[in-house]
Specification:
The chain is 25% helix and 44% strand. With 138 residues, it is an alpha+beta fold. The termini are far apart. Helix 1 packs antiparallel against helix 2. The chain contains 2 helices and 7 strands, in the order βββββββαα. It is elongated and about 60 Å long. Strand 5 and strand 6 form a beta hairpin. The protein has 2 domains: 83 residues, ATP Synthase, domain 1; 46 residues, Up-down Bundle (Single alpha-helices involved in coiled-coils or other helix-helix interfaces), CATH 1.20.5.440. It binds adenosine-5'-triphosphate. The site of adenosine-5'-triphosphate (ATP) has 13 residues, from strand 7, helix 1 and helix 2.
Length: 138
């Protein structure tokens, strides 16, 4: 019998991953966790960050995720995220622009301005994580 589990990563727009994995690691909101086949079921929210898994051939794969949650069952991990992209699909230039926009909004903010800082910080975190993932320091 296979020791793999099924990993599914989906967003409202697309199915990003649906394949067999030997192990899945994900950025849980209370800490990074790893899941192997046979794990006790649990449900958790996720931080913005990277889901790393070993595919069937043992190769490490990396997927950016933001704003989601994960459900682990003994033979399946499902991740529902607001946004997710495989490392190879990340457009770094786009994230550099997003980073600059967010930094500009923060630095130009004045007392009484009606900008949603929490939203800007979330955009900044997405941009930083995407860039770090592609540049290999995540
Ligand atoms: P931007 O301001 O550039 O849209 P964002 O962080 O606000 O960045 P999200 O809301 O996280 O974008 O994602 C919106 C959609 O765009 C999702 O489908 C996501 O997968 C995609 N996306 C966002 N940034 C990138 C990127 N740098 N490379 C590839 N796809 C991206």
């Amino acid at each position: 019998m296979s020791d793999n589990l099924t990993l599914e990563i989906v967003t409202p727009e697309k199915a990003v991953v649906n394949e067999q994995a030997q192990i899945v690691m994900a950025p849980g909101s209370v800490g990074e966790f790893g899941i192997l086949k046979g794990h006790t079921p649990f449900l958790t929210t996720l931080n913005t960050g990277t889901v790393q898994y070993k595919d069937e051939s043992g190769t490490d794969q990396f997927v950016f995720v933001s704003g989601g949650f994960a459900e682990a069952l003994p033979d399946k991990v499902t991740i529902l995220a607001e946004a997710a992209e495989k490392k190879s699909d990340i457009d770094v230039r786009r994230s550099q622009d997003a980073l600059e926009r967010a930094e500009k909004r923060i630095s130009e903010k004045k007392e009484g301005d009606d900008i949603d800082l929490e939203r800007v910080h979330a955009a900044l975190a997405r941009a930083v994580h995407r860039i770090k993932l592609v540049q290999g320091s995540d």
